[in-house]
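Quick illustration, no need to memorize.
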Amino acid sequence: ASNGFYFNLSGSATSPFRLNNVIVNNPSGTNRFVRPNNFNACGINGDFNIISGEFITATGAPLYLAGNFTNNGTLTSLGALYLGTWNGFTNGAPTANAQTISGLGVFRNLATAQTANLTNFYVNNTNASGVTVSMPLSVSGTLTLNNGVVHAGANTMTLGTAALAGTIAGGSPTAYIDGTLARTIGATNAN
């Protein structure tokens, strides 16, 4: 059995339960983590700060984030990181907040045998400043650009792995990566 701190979020599609600012500051050690229970999506309408320890998303479920994300611990993203507001529906709603993703922590798509930082990454941000990313990020699955500019600066955003091509969805003159986007295509991949 695993130790750790599980939490349940209840609600309905018309009235989802959302958190405001979330701080994870748990001690290091085997099986010390924070995680949503029941494989639910998690909606954070404020800022998300991992000071220490690990936050694990529910398998296949998105983590909706409407504020800034600072990771100085570990994010194990078994679902999608969705920059937008969780409204209880599958695609969420755009956030009007300028957002940053920063920190010196670990971003990983699997607890073991990590292949990328994130499995899926959705951007739905209508603020004129968009999203600023202060470290390189890799996505093994789908990068979806619904709304907003992702300012990568000198950091490279990488899509795909040697085994998975990764896909890009959306994108427009107002939804794009401002910086370097690299795409990894394995020798056996037909894309």
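The chain has no helices and 18 strands.
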